[in-house]
């Protein structure tokens, strides 16, 4: 009986194997769940960033929303857009390897990084391989100089600072300021070098200048020195961590002047860690939600972002990353091609392109000119638009 039972089981197994359409192992659908890299029906867009970092994660949110929008509208050139996410984990040492992987996977363009230093590292790989790279927020020097496949749509400090300083002089009537120079960071030192001549041109006098260093936490001596002078406001071309610690020390020593600085201070950390000490602090950015003048296109993006972000309002990282994807998408449509050489030619000719973060034009050096500059103010624990300053 046992022998008959075994023979019966063998017979059943053989019958299953020879049934029409039956296969052993995974189905074709299961095998091919990975993106069709370089396939005829796919256009790949690459993300480069630190998925666990604030700026990188916010950029990724904007990129995902943009890709979803494009695919819901039928894709590009009749093809689906596939997002390939390259995560360097905030490590510059990983940037080249991750970028090389995106290039190997035949992306039409790379969106990232959100920082200047890592963008320049990635740019060497993209330029050498003739792949378009467009950074949403890298605003430091030496980015587009890496080559003609390299773009950015960040609000440049050289555009923003003169507009903001003019507002401080004309609208807020600032005449005398203290300035805190943050040494040891290329971003903050470069920003100081832009602020100083802008203040001079607008008739604002620097009556006290203090130096702090990267990762300093004790600013008691510098603030004590500021107490010796009368001034209208503080110019702080620094990062958010040093900014909120400095403002807390000012309040501790009885100084009530507010600070104005660049988008390096524009983080939720400034508000969450600074508390009431940073109330009134002003930062500029390439994006802001102004209920008085918000465009329908921008409002639509804001609502989409809120739906996936616990009703939070988007900031510059998500908005400009969203714009970066759509700018590339329009270049692909206009070129009728997803080949990087065609994309970069169309991007270079961008004039008065309307995104959710404002109007973008690339000058003869492929540098973005954005308007308006949003001056944001910390008010009751959140950023609100104080002024939308036009740029000619």
Quick gist of this model?
With 392 residues, the chain is an alpha/beta fold. The protein has 13 helices and 15 strands.
Number of self-contained structural domains: 2
Q: At the first level of CATH, what is the class of the largest domain?
A: Alpha Beta
Shape: elongated
Q: How many helices does DSSP assign?
A: 13
CATH third-tier fold name of the largest domain: Rossmann fold
User: Structural class, from secondary structure content?
Assistant: alpha/beta
Mean pLDDT: 90
Query: Order of strands side by side in the largest beta sheet?
Result: 7-6-8-9-10-14-15
Largest sheet: 7 strands, mixed
Strand content: 15-25%
Radius of gyration equals: 26 Å
């Amino acid at each position: 009986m046992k022998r008959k039972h075994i023979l019966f089981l063998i017979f059943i197994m053989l019958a299953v194997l020879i049934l029409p359409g039956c296969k052993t192992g995974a189905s074709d659908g299961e095998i091919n769940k990975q993106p069709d890299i370089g396939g005829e029906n796919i256009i790949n867009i690459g993300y480069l960033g630190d998925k666990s970092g604030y700026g990188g994660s916010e950029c990724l949110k904007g990129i995902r929303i943009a890709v979803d929008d494009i695919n819901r509208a039928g894709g590009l050139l009749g093809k689906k857009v596939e997002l390939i996410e390259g995560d360097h984990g905030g490590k510059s040492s990983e940037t080249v390897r991750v970028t090389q992987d995106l290039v190997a996977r035949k992306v039409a363009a790379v969106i990232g990084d959100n920082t200047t230093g890592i963008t320049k590292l990635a740019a060497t790989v993209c330029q050498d391989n003739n792949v378009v790279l467009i950074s949403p927020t890298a605003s430091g020097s030496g980015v587009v100089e890496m080559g003609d496949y390299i773009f950015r749509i960040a609000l440049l400090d050289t555009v923003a600072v003169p507009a903001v300083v003019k507002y401080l002089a004309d609208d807020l009537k600032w005449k005398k300021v203290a300035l805190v120079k943050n040494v040891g960071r290329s971003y903050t030192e470069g920003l100081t070098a832009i602020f100083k001549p802008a203040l001079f041109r607008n008739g604002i006098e620097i009556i006290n200048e203090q130096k702090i260093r990267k990762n300093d936490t004790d600013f008691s001596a510098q603030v004590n020195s500021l107490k010796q002078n009368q001034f209208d406001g503080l110019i702080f071309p620094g990062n958010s961590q040093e900014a909120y610690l400095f403002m807390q020390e000012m309040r501790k020593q009885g100084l009530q002047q507010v600070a104005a600085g660049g988008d390096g201070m524009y983080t939720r950390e400034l508000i969450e860690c600074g508390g009431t000490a940073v109330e009134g602090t002003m930062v500029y950015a390439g994006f802001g939600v102004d209920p008085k003048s918000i465009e329908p296109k921008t409002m639509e993006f804001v609502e989409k972002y809120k739906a996936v972000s616990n009703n939070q309002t988007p900031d510059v990282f998500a908005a400009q990353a969203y714009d970066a994807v759509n700018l590339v998408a329009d270049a692909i449509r206009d070129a009728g091609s997803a080949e990087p050489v065609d994309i970069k030619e169309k991007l270079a000719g961008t004039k008065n392109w309307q995104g959710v973060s404002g109007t973008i034009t690339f000058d003869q050096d492929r540098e973005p000119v954005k308007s308006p500059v949003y001056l944001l103010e910390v008010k009751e624990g959140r950023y609100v638009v104080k002024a939308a300053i036009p740029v000619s």
